[in-house]
Specification:
2 copies of one chain form a homodimer. By secondary structure, chain A is of the alpha/beta class. The first copy, chain A, contains 14 helices and 14 strands. In chain A, strand 10 and strand 11 form a beta hairpin.
Chain lengths: 381, 381
């Protein structure tokens, strides 16, 4: 029977499927599943600090017929209200998403016209590029430095600008206060909306917290997630935007997955309103700071002396820039047999390039293994 | 500040957003949230029979650092293996989705070229139309009768055919065995893939079970869900297809929501392999049969004598055809003040029309309230 139809699926794919590629991160994560592997490749929180007990108790308390039934596409109303209150907005400005990744997909679905240009930081979050490429986006990247996105060098046209202003993925850089104001000015001057992705903002180890872009300008579309402050597997994210944008995103979400698990939303709501998450995040900051310190120290100890890095004040990633003739892809191939991995920097660029950089995740490896992993990489440089 | 930017979002939407509309169902569900409303409008399971206690205990047992971490995009491997074994396939042929709605979205993303024609039953599942319209699908509908889709009247060209062969939504019709064979023959002859959506197949009240299309032909893409047999809020669905199709769908899913909650997948897996779901479904069949019987009896008692219906042998819906001059949309407007609702049949047609039909859900209303609701509707006819 199979032979008669002989479905050749590859000839049946829509042209947008050409833009779907298995990412380097993905293949690396497969390797890193091996037990004795030291992986700096993923973007995983520290699993040994997941509040499994609190989540378990909350799940058990909330598992009832209301939380198991189909729910509204917009999200669990008290959770929406919580975020509206937190940011001084209205409940109509909040959409709950199935993780922040879904927010990126929905924004692409609703805003990206094939061939239109999306402005991004260069390097930027890989899966944002993936999400929007499918809808036909072209990308124009602007570099970052110690103070974040180089606002002076931004283009003056584009569908929207996507930025991770705080502890950026992958660079670790944070946009300075001055540049935050400048960026908002640029947005108004050129009538280009800002999309602020803020998954790591709560994970600040040191330095003064800076206002979120959405706090400086209510026009900013703001994304947040419980993946880093509670647990990724709940798949609960928050999107803040103008009511007419939310309204269209809700219609898109309805056709995409109907709604986000109410049970999981209620767990996030309970642990957020009870103050538990705030307390938990204080612990995470200590844990991740220690890991960042271990990684920075190990890089200084083992890596070539002219290795450049932005020491991030928070978040989960360290970005390294090596000599111009260094090839981080080739080096990774040498590292893998020694059971250590990172992500070569070229993956985070919309048009590739920048082969002498690498992203290292420090949140998912215990400090004692961080030094060992960095030592192994340094041997293969 | 808001005035300066004055973002007019509606002028920034991509053209595909024109296809996103708030559905009639959606607006009705809002009404039906009122406490003393009798709603036959939704497609909700009976919440009083959710196995809240079993889900709660299973969640509590499985809530650990593995199930809270990011997981593979393909899904929890034992759950994929379970379905591979169940259907005599390989694990590479199984993708776990965030509810079955996500399967529809991903299939649209990967298979629907703008302007291409998707073949559907007429009437069909509203949210499948919504999911694919966004990707530029045109629809060609073929009517159903007592024996399901009229296979003899199918077109000979199309990107794929979408069918709900068992206890179809909205018609309640089931495709006969003869037509199942005929449909597969048609698919081979015209080289048009079949997508079989099977959310209700397990909810058979009477009559002999028929083989699923995927059991008759492994080329069929098959969708299933735990929403009707366990609980919708887990958001766990299953897609079965050829490995090269799954591979592309995985790439699409990665950019869409990264992965489906591992914790929720593990709950589905545990309650499925333990045999609990099978036992639970036997109870649901009794409960829903009683509700179907109550609804059929009430329609016969209160509705005009020439009202036609297909008495479904399972599932959740009753489809009524009234006199040709009957307007189910106008009648609904008269019903709502009397706190009773259904979905007018025109909503399930890709091109509208058919105003003298209505879909009634019987699974979500207790038998004694079903008679009262039908009586109220009949008064407004």
């Amino acid at each position: 029977m199979k032979d008669t139809l002989g479905l050749n699926w590859e000839h049946r794919f829509a042209s947008r499927a050409d833009h779907m590629k298995s990412s380097a991160i993905r293949e690396l994560l497969k390797l890193a599943e091996q037990p004795d592997f030291i992986s700096f490749a993923g973007g995983f929180p520290a699993p040994e600090f997941f509040p499994a007990r609190e989540i378990e108790e909350t799940l058990a308390r909330l598992c009832d017929s209301d939380s198991l039934q189909y729910g509204p596409t917009e999200g669990y109303r008290p959770l929406r209200q919580l975020w509206a209150d937190r940011l001084g907005g209205k409940v109509e400005e909040i959409l709950i998403t199935t993780g922040s990744q879904q927010a990126l997909d929905l924004l692409g679905k609703v805003l990206v016209e094939p061939g239109s240009t999306v402005l991004v930081e260069n390097p930027t979050y890989l899966a944002a590029l993936q999400a929007w490429r499918v809808y036909g986006a072209k990308f124009a990247g602007t570099p970052l430095d110690q103070d974040g996105l180089q606002v002076d060098n931004l283009p003056t046209q584009g569908q929207f600008l996507y930025t991770i202003p705080t502890f950026q993925n992958p660079s670790g850089a944070t946009l300075s206060l001055q540049r935050r104001h400048q960026l908002i000015e640029w947005s108004h001057k050129h009538q280009i909306p800002l999309i602020e992705d803020d998954p790591y903002g709560a994970l600040r180890f040191e330095g003064e917290p800076l206002p979120k872009l959405v706090e400086l300008d209510p026009n900013v579309v703001h994304l947040c997630t419980y993946s880093k402050t509670l647990a990724p597997s709940l798949r609960v994210g928050v999107l803040v935007g103008a009511p007419e944008l939310i309204c269209k995103l809700v219609q898109a979400k309805q056709a995409t997955d109907l709604h986000t698990s109410t049970l999981n939303q209620r767990v996030a709501y309970e642990l957020d309103t009870s103050g538990y998450i705030e307390k938990h995040v204080m612990e995470l900051r200590q844990v991740y700071k220690q890991r960042r310190d271990a990684m920075v120290a190990a890089v200084r100890k083992y890596f070539p002396p002219h290795t450049r890095m932005i020491v991030p004040q928070g978040g989960m990633f360290l970005w390294l820039t090596l000599d111009h003739d260094f090839d981080s892809v080739a080096a990774l191939e040498r590292c893998v047999p020694h059971k250590v991995a990172y992500v070569p920097g070229n993956n985070f660029h919309p048009h590739g390039g920048d082969p002498h950089t690498m992203r290292l995740n420090f949140s998912n490896t215990r400090p004692e293994m961080i030094e060992e992993g960095i030592r192994r990489i340094a041997e293969e440089l």
